[in-house]
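User: Can you recover a sequence for this backbone? Please restate the input before giving your answer.

Assistant: Of course. Working from this structure:
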C-alpha cells in the first residue's frame, strides 16, 4: 500500500527528518528478485520500499548505514569484491546491481543473471547520479511516480536546510576519515557526494586541493590544521571505534589540531560517504543540526 503523497508531505512539514522517514511503501508487495552488491543501490531499493533477495556484507551494512533498516531476510553474499557465486546461483536473481568488479567476477555474475553496473563515480556531481539511480530503479520496478515524489521531497528538504543555514555566517567544513596509523587522513573534496551536499547547503569545503576519481585524497593529518577556522567532520568506521577513541585521547598530532582544541568537531559514527540520495540527506541534516546548535567563533 502506497503512502498518500499528502501524508508524506504532512509528515515532513511537521518536522520529521526525511532520513528517518519510512519507505514510500508501507509494506512492500513482495520481495524483489534483485541482488544489490552495490550499497548505494541497496539503500535506494530500501528507500523505494523494495526488499532485495540479498546484498553484500549485510552485517557491516547494518552497522554503518544510518538511513533504512535492512530486513533480516536479506541474505549476505559476502564482500562486494568477492561475492559468493554459489549462493547467487541458488538464489536465481532476476537482476544483479553491482559495483565495477574484476572482469573474471563480472563475467561470472553475468552468467548467473542480468547484471548492471552502478557507476556513481567518477562524476562532477554524485548526487545527480544518485538521483538518476533512484528514478531508474523506480521506473524499472513500476515505482516511478513514487520515486519522483520521494526525490522532490528530498530536494525540498535540502533547500529548506540551506535556507536555515543561510541565516548566519557558517564556517567552512572539512570532512575526513582518520587512518588507523593516526598520521594520515582521507579528505573528501571535489567529485565526492560530500562536496555535492556542501554545495547544496551553501557551505564551503575547506579542502580545495586535488581529489581522485572517487572524490578523495590522502594527506598527512597535519594538513587538517591548514583550515583552523573549519568545522572538522570525522567519518568513523564501526570496526575501528575503540581504536579511534584511543588515537584521540593519546595522539599528539590529533590533539594539536586547531579544530580539536576549539571543540569544533562533529563525529559521524554511522555514515557511508558513497551512499545514495538518502545518505546525502542524512549528512545534510547532521551538519545543519550541529551548525545550528554550536556557536562557532
Amino acid at each position: 500500500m502506497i503512502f498518500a503523497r499528502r501524508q508524506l508531505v504532512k509528515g515532513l512539514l511537521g518536522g520529521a527528518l526525511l532520513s528517518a522517514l519510512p519507505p514510500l511503501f508501507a509494506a512492500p508487495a513482495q520481495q524483489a528478485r534483485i541482488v544489490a552488491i552495490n550499497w548505494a543501490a541497496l539503500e535506494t531499493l530500501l528507500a523505494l520500499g523494495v526488499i532485495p533477495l540479498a546484498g553484500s556484507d549485510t552485517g557491516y551494512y547494518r552497522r554503518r548505514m544510518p538511513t533504512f533498516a535492512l530486513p533480516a531476510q536479506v541474505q549476505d553474499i559476502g564482500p562486494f569484491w568477492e561475492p559468493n557465486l554459489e549462493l547467487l546461483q541458488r538464489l536465481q536473481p532476476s537482476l544483479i546491481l553491482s559495483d565495477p568488479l574484476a572482469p573474471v567476477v563480472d563475467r561470472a555474475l553475468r552468467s548467473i543473471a542480468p547484471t548492471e553496473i552502478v557507476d556513481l563515480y567518477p562524476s562532477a556531481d554524485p548526487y545527480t547520479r544518485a538521483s538518476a539511480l533512484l528514478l531508474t530503479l523506480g521506473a524499472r520496478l513500476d515505482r516511478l511516480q513514487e520515486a519522483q515524489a520521494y526525490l522532490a521531497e528530498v530536494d525540498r528538504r535540502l533547500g529548506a536546510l540551506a535556507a536555515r543555514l543561510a541565516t548566519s555566517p557558517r564556517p567552512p567544513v572539512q570532512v575526513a576519515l582518520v587512518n588507523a596509523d593516526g598520521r594520515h587522513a582521507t579528505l573528501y573534496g571535489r567529485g565526492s557526494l560530500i562536496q555535492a551536499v556542501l554545495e547544496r547547503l551553501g557551505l564551503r569545503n575547506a579542502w580545495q586541493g586535488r581529489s581522485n576519481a572517487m572524490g578523495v585524497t590522502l594527506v598527512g593529518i597535519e594538513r587538517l590544521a591548514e583550515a583552523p577556522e573549519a568545522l572538522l567532520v570525522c567519518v568513523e568506521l564501526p570496526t575501528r571505534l575503540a581504536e579511534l577513541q584511543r588515537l584521540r585521547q593519546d595522539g599528539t598530532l590529533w590533539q594539536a589540531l586547531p579544530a580539536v582544541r576549539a571543540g569544533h568537531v562533529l563525529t559521524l559514527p554511522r555514515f557511508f560517504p558513497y551512499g545514495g540520495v538518502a545518505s546525502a540527506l542524512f549528512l545534510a541534516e547532521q551538519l545543519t543540526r550541529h551548525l545550528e546548535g554550536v556557536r562557532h567563533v
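That completes the design. The chain is about 40% helix and 15% strand.
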